[in-house]
Amino acid sequence: MKLPKEGEAFGEWFNTVLEEAEILDKRYPVKGMNVWRPYGVRLLRAIDAVIREAVESRGYREVIFPTLIPETAFRKEEEHIRGFSSQVYWVTRGGETELDVKLVLRPTSETAMYPIFALWVKSHGDLPIKVYQIVNVFRYETKQTRPMLRVREIHFFEAHTAHESYEEAERQMLEHLETWREITHRLAIPYRIFRRPEWDKFAGAQYSLAADTILPSGRTLQIGTIHQYGQNFSRAFGIRFETREGGQDYAYQTTYGISERLLAAVIAIHGDERGMVLPPEVAPIKVVIVPIEKKGREEEVYGFCRGIKETLEREGIETVLDLRDYRPGWKYYYWELRGVPIRVEVGPAEVDSGRVVVTRRDTLRREEVPVEELVPRVRALLRDIQESLRERAWREFESKVREFEDLEGVAEHRGIAKVPWCGDDDCALAMQEETGKDLLGTPLEEEPVSGRCPVCGREAKTWAYLAKPY
Amino acid sequence: MKLPKEGEAFGEWFNTVLEEAEILDKRYPVKGMNVWRPYGVRLLRAIDAVIREAVESRGYREVIFPTLIPETAFRKEEEHIRGFSSQVYWVTRGGETELDVKLVLRPTSETAMYPIFALWVKSHGDLPIKVYQIVNVFRYETKQTRPMLRVREIHFFEAHTAHESYEEAERQMLEHLETWREITHRLAIPYRIFRRPEWDKFAGAQYSLAADTILPSGRTLQIGTIHQYGQNFSRAFGIRFETREGGQDYAYQTTYGISERLLAAVIAIHGDERGMVLPPEVAPIKVVIVPIEKKGREEEVYGFCRGIKETLEREGIETVLDLRDYRPGWKYYYWELRGVPIRVEVGPAEVDSGRVVVTRRDTLRREEVPVEELVPRVRALLRDIQESLRERAWREFESKVREFEDLEGVAEHRGIAKVPWCGDDDCALAMQEETGKDLLGTPLEEEPVSGRCPVCGREAKTWAYLAKPY
User: Hey, are the CB atoms on B142 and A95 less than 8 Å from each other?
Assistant: First the structure.
């Protein structure tokens, strides 16, 4: 492929990459549900592994709760059911039997987990609970679906915690943010955390934090959410415990969610006109070796390539030697599209000189490397690619977060617009109306603010961050 | 725990282990659906990893197909729908909307995958397809449910292949059997492969092979199935391709399925009255170190323990150092129940002598090992435990497969009864009737047979293998 990625062109670019790099097949006969092809699964697993490492090392433990939730449990927390009832799938029949208690396909697992939490928690000694699962969740989306960005079956990480005090739950919120920093660092994904407006927080939450990034289209993508539930759910589900002082209290809960959108961000943000550019930390294949055949010297070249492959793999560097019967140019195209960070070319000249041609995917810069220096050079290049992707992505992100004095130009801005705001909901809703953008929220940490609210003219108390989200 | 495992006692033993070793929580409010607790998830993942390695190394590639299948696709293969329609869950509503096309929760993924296979396969060059997925499938079981043995949401490995000739599909059947041998070898699970009787083959298959093992109750458990579909599904779904000769043909297909029952077998077969005994190849924790505290020397002991842990982990041996505030005896019990293969005890005497006490889980035999020999000794013990679990399990299995001359004693036999059989379905059905057992099938490879069919008295042509399956 050779397609522009920025602005209007992004949608086509993204769909073309997903198809041509054989990540997803969108032809499954249910709207909003797609087939993950082998390379897509490998990418997904690589990201799952990064998430797992970040949370396991902090003591979160993996569980698997059932996919189906009885209606009785689902209806226990009022705001939650209001928020989700229009978008759940209902299982009403088993075989030929109408079910007595209908079941919902989990849209998220609060109502599956918390009846069991209530059994697990008796005393403060049973707290904290810190569990997570990586499962599929289901949303009957009525909006337009888009592969990986808005789908009806979602690959989903969800962590759920329960604590003996609000302060501890607040500290857990900070730990979630810390794991988030670690995960996005390894994926080289820039983001900003916002405190979601009241009318857009998670159904049942006390407050919600969300991480938004910016895709090349200029639209924002919410790629992670962290919620403080306080005692909203624990009261509804009876997660009660004996306190250290011998009294009774309801647990304080938080959650943390990440979906396959994070992979979408990795593909969208780092890619270029030739396809994906994967950060080495999550590239399932780090190096591809392409032999340049010459009649009569094939075996020599292949043998040399095999030696290189063995050397790299012995060092734990995942390497593919592409011996398929295609021309080298075709193979370059194939592996560039798939975002493999480093390509090594080996022909008879390289065999003779003992120097191979190494090309890095991000800049496409080529260099000659003596074969005995290949391992340290590959290591250095992988580090360098990782670092420079991260820097570039953050630079681009920051350049798209722009401060405005009033609403002029906000509607047209591709990215996040930062507008002085008095803090009143009505003024924010008016800003949304006038600009056609949504309020992502207010900054997590206080930022110095000056200027006046463009709606009411009063002095600004904070910033409104406005954008067009997916 | 301290419970007998054999015969009638098995059910209680098994449920107690699942609960006390914190593998499953059975209190989820939907019949036949359970919660996997962290240690259960680790066991499941360890078995998944064994399966993945076996199939990935043979070129099967992982995919993920949607959970929901449109009724239209589900109804395409007649026998299949007949076989499954009484046991599928139906999604009939999204939000408040009645769905135009109802969806089934996959009971298995033929009808999800094959419409897409039809798009992927155009020419013989697109074959073979060898894919697998590890997902949850759903069966609205009307029989009594039992944790891990018969559930309504099942953790499931399913491989699907498509080939250009029947011969190639037959060779694939052999490869499935080879991966099966590798997987069960690593889990130390004995089994026998049977060709399922006509009336008990997979809905839509030409023929089915199944691997059965014997649990301590004497009942058999089907832990793996391999099916030859021929062109049954490819004709229904239009998986057509241009042959090498330029003609058109339908693909030849096979599948291969393994469920969480394999984990049930590992727990049931190797366990003893104290709980689980895990084969080292799938034990998430290989060694537990228990400090024996003595007043005034705690720090010394802990330091020594930490040194051992570091040494073992540097060698890639997963080790837990249990520093919790409990008595050593309590910790022995705790880790024995969880099946950790090796325990190392360290008290002040061990610190002084530089020799630690090592106990293997399978025989509970204790020995003293000089600390500098610990790594090679642990390695040797792990190999030895693996090997001796496998031998013991096979020995027990073989002792429970008994040859009978006629039906006398078959009903009471705990295990698999081998009865001479004329080969007629009617006689097998009569044997089932009389003994209360099911025909598992006939042996995969011919076995010398003598004697007469106990029903019709004609000379036996093969063996009927009868048992009471879960």
Answer: yes
